[in-house]
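Q: Could you write out the predicted structure for this multi-component system? I'm mainly interested in how the pieces pack against one another.
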Amino acid sequence: MAPPRLFVISGPSGVGKSTILRGLLETVSGLRFAVSHTTRPRRAGEVDGRDYHFVSDEEFDRLTAAGAFLEWERVHDHRYGTSRAALDGGAGDLVIEVDVKGAATLREKVPSAVSIFIGPPSFEDLRLRLAGRARESEAEVRRRLRTAEKELPLARDYDHRLVNEDLGPTVEKVAAIVRAARAEAPGGSGDARR
Ligand code: ADP
Ligand code: 5GP
């Protein structure tokens, strides 16, 4: 059996990563979402163990000290981490959504990972999506836009760069990236479990 591949999706907050991921998981079979740990409180509709492993600060400290994370970052006031266990075992390829710093670490630690940067059609579109989502305060939206200004130039470091103009075509483009990676002959370096 071919070793699992890791697809890393990143990009600024509000660009549509979670929405694209949901579409991707419905479109492509044999793809699993690698569940991260976070200290952020659970939002309405989120399920522990499905969307995130929601843990206390103390538990996150304990896991960090135990070397459980391949990478972790503080993002918008909370900590988020990719555990080694999340990339371990199980059948099928893995897809994970991380911030740009986490993506840089994963590219370094899992060189075979396929990294995909999602950008907005324009900065104004990003602002409208963040505001339209109506999840964060106005001040928090402004803060995320300031962060986005620093994140957008990092798109050059990724294997693939996509603009999330219309959702359907974007999901299809990510699906095409997954299919193309699967079609490549295994070179022995595609194992995400390291
Ligand atoms: P992220 O996970 O990157 O923070 P979300 O998936 O929460 O972003 O999307 C942010 C907002 O933008 C949501 O309200 C979502 O419905 C909307 N959105 C996602 N993709 C598109 C798109 N292609 N065109 C317009 N709005 C979009
Ligand atoms: P949210 O709280 O909106 O679900 O996610 C906030 C940010 O944390 C997003 O940019 C998301 O990509 C990032 N994130 C989620 N999981 C991880 C992770 O395991 N590691 C890192 N570095 N970032 C993550």
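A: Regarding packing and overall arrangement: Helices lie at 17-27, 57-65, 100-109, 123-133, 138-151, 167-183.
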